[in-house]
Specification:
By secondary structure, the protein is an alpha/beta fold. The chain is built from eleven helices and 17 strands.
């Protein structure tokens, strides 16, 4: 039996829960969970914001642990290896996206906590293809958030061939944004942080931003007109997107990695006349996750985390819900 913490209703308290996972699949592995980050997506699933939650729900999709068992068809991972698991726990392996290496775009990808039980548990299972070995010298306790938040902000750098000479801005300096600043700085970019918090402006500079702009001050935003090659939006709230489009250079891109639920209101002419783009992306493929982990170790990039014990899971979830987390919350054995 796997021992976990589950919610049994929308927004409900997480309570001890046991379930029988059945026989281990031929191409699956079982991970003994040591640390598990808490992502805003865990809250969204707990509250059924997206209408896809099934209860009982065991959240947790930023898993770090040790392989405790492997299926008979698994030959790339062995018992005892330290690994991580993110938002996706399996792929069809036959569609064009999978065959081209874009597993994260697989229409049949399995969500680690969508119709499955996640990592707020002593063990979790997933297809071996979705599990990534940890590089040597990585900080185990803070590595979990890299498997969702980290790869979410790193993936666009690879997908859009961002240059070290690019000027890049990040909207929102929270769980995603604070990692984006670190990656972009190490990538060689000139980095600007848009934040509504005066306190976070100083923190943004410490995390790797070269400049900070008060996003509540329209004059400061307007003064940045035509500056950026890329803007990463990490927030889940509606903003004046036209004001941000105006800060893009010709051929610039406003890219969404934060799940803004309301439709975007955008003027078309600034896009046409400047050949600007609006785009979005999910997490990355296992290959890009591995690449990100190596880059993080090479440049000593670590999520800033607050740690809680697994039996403090409800307290930890409330810390995240309050918006006061600095910057990621991690459950640890």
């Amino acid at each position: 039996m796997i021992k976990a913490y589950a919610a049994f209703e929308t927004g409900g308290e997480l309570k001890p829960f046991e379930y029988d996972p059945g026989p281990l699949g031929r191409n699956d592995v079982e991970i003994a969970v040591e640390h598990c980050g808490i992502c805003h997506s865990d809250l969204s699933m707990l509250d059924n914001e997206w209408g896809i939650t099934q209860y009982p729900l065991v959240p947790g999709h930023e898993v770090v642990g040790t392989i405790s068992a492997v299926g008979e068809g698994v030959n790339n991972l062995q018992v005892g290896m330290q690994v991580g698991l993110g938002w996706q726990s399996g792929y069809c392996m036959t569609c064009s996206s999978c065959l081209e290496g874009d597993h994260n775009l697989c229409a049949g990808a399995l969500g680690t906590i969508v119709g499955r039980h996640g990592g707020f548990a002593d063990r979790v299972r997933a297809q071996a293809a979705s599990v990534v070995a940890l590089p040597n010298n990585i900080d185990i306790q803070s590595a979990g958030p890299l498997f969702c938040g980290g790869i979410t902000v790193f993936n666009p750098l690879v997908q859009f061939d961002v240059k070290p000479t690019s000027k890049v801005a990040v909207i929102g300096i929270g769980g995603l944004g604070h990692m984006a600043l670190q990656f972009l700085n190490a990538w060689g970019c000139e980095v600007t942080a848009f934040t509504s918090s005066e306190a976070k402006q100083a923190e943004a500079l410490e995390l790797g931003a070269h400049h900070a702009i008060n996003s509540r001050n329209l004059a400061e935003i307007e003064a940045a007109a035509g500056q950026f090659d890329l803007i990463l939006s990490t927030v889940n709230v509606t903003l004046d997107w036209n004001a941000y489009v105006a800060t893009l250079r010709p051929k610039g891109r406003l890219h969404f990695v934060g799940a803004t639920l309301e439709p975007l209101e955008l003027g078309v002419f600034p896009l046409i006349l400047g050949q600007r783009s609006i785009s979005g992306s999910p997490v990355g493929s296992p290959a890009n996750i591995a690449k990100m982990l190596e880059f993080a170790v090479q440049h000593n990039i670590k999520p800033v985390v607050e740690s809680y014990r697994f039996d403090q899971v409800n307290e930890a979830m409330e810390k995240l819900r309050s918006g006061q987390a600095r910057y990621r919350v991690v459950l640890s054995k």
